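Annotators were shown the component list below and the corresponding predicted structure, then asked to write short factual statements about the assembly.
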Amino acid sequence: MKKKILIVFGTRPEGIKMSPLVQEFKNFPDKFETKICVTAQHREMLDQVLEIFEIKPDFDLDIMKKNQDLYDVTSKVILKMRKILSEFAPDLVIVHGDTTTTFSTSLASYYQRIDVAHVEAGLRTNKIYSPFPEEINRKLTGSIAKYHFAPTEISKENLLKENVKSENIFITGNTVIDALYLALNKINKNSKLEKNILQFFDENLKNFSFDKDKFILVTGHRRENFGEGFINLCEAIKEIALKYKNFYIIYPVHLNPKVQKPVYEILSSLKNVHLIKPLEYLQFIYLMNKSYLLLTDSGGVQEEAPSLGKPVLLMRDSTERPEALKAGTVKLLGTNKNKIVFEVSKLIDDKIHYEKMAKSHNPYGDGNACKKIVEIISMRNFFNEK
Ligand code: UD1
Ligand code: UDP
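Structure shown to annotators:
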């Protein structure tokens, strides 16, 4: 009998990291009845991903509202998952990472005693407010999940320390590298696509040219940085933009109003700062690949940039992704303005320092994580062991 699989995600990064897994499951229609449920905790930013990966969800909870808070997202996901879980009655629910969609879906599944598999399992800072609320989301998901697809050896060790059974943890690499390779392949193979991307940037980045201009790529959205953190970041970007007039700063601004407000207020008048809408994944990857360095608080960007050999300055106090930190391509800065300006300046002025950080390596996977996950779930006794 075919096993019923329900893959659930809700935000941009989950969409990017789960889409290659959806594609892999769809290669085995004889083994699995796979359905996709999006909570749409994000709307526009998720739809961009669904379009690029050509995914049509079977269920769309459509929960996003402007300025939603954690209570809104948690309660809506739990309530709306009830019917889908009871009607489809999956053998396995697969969730990803650390969002409120992830945790709430796991809890909703647990209430119906449905097994949960957790992709990108075992990341930890062991600080409950950093990142907030992601550290608790992934810990609680880890407590509910039966199967744990850990990206690295370190994430497996974290789970073992929490007494997760070793036989239920599988090291697969991170599916973000699968997505990255798919995207790069798509761009490299299709000259028309690259032309379209270039035309898009031509229209959206006034006076900027990839041939002659260097740029810093910025993203930021973490809740723990709201308020003072974002103001410091913007003030730092302003100082850098004024200090290095030959550099551009390109910043696709997250749609959260708590991010949009300070960013546009402080930075919109600067000539060499381009504030733009969140980019489609292929456009973003293209930009990342051409950038001089990345200034970010993102989880996914920390994983992608080392594969592309781009230095990352991380505007966070801690990270659950220590692998690239150890290798030296990622540096932890927090949101102190002077520190950000100092470290960016060092990477611009000191070429030897830059070369040391700009080394390409792949601590997070080899691009076959999804294949491994589906192979593991296909194993004859996978669903029998309790
Ligand atoms: C969420 C996740 C975070 C993840 C991030 C990726 C939680 C608690 N947070 O944070 O872990 O790193 O996504 O980006 O799960 N908005 C739109 N359109 C969109 C998306 C967002 O307008 O397509 C605006 C809305 O006003 C929304 C707000 O952004 O209310 C916040 O979205 P939300 O998903 O609650 O938080 P994020 O900061 O995006
Ligand atoms: N990304 C994108 N468009 C953008 C900015 C980021 O497609 O304008 C991608 C990026 O390549 C990465 C993911 O979005 O794969 C990261 O999402 P985000 O930073 O929102 O969330 P996090 O990874 O911190 O959870």
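Statements collected:
1. The longest helix spans residues 70-88.
2. The domain at 191-358 is CATH 3.40.50.2000 (Rossmann fold).
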